[in-house]
Amino acid sequence: MKQQRRGAGLGTRILAALIVVLCVAAVTAWLVALIIGPLIFHDHMLMVESVSPEPEVITHAEEAFDAAWTLTLALALLAAVATSVIVTLFLVRRIISPISTVRGAVTKVADGDYTARVPEVSMGAEFTELMDAFNTMASKLDQTESTRKRLLSDLAHEMRTPVATVDGYLEAMQDGVAHADDQTLVMLREQTARLTRLAEDISLVSAAEERHLSLQPAPTQVGELLTTAEGQTRGRYREKRVNLFVDATAQSQEIGVTVDSGRIGQVLTNLLDNALHHTDPGDEVTLRAAHSTTSVTIEVADTGHGIATEHLPHVFERFYRVDTARDRQHGGSGIGLAIVRSIITAHGGTVRAHSDGPGAGAVFTVELPRQSE
Question: Where exactly are the transmembrane stretches of this chain (predicted)?
Answer without folding.
Answer: 12-41, 67-92
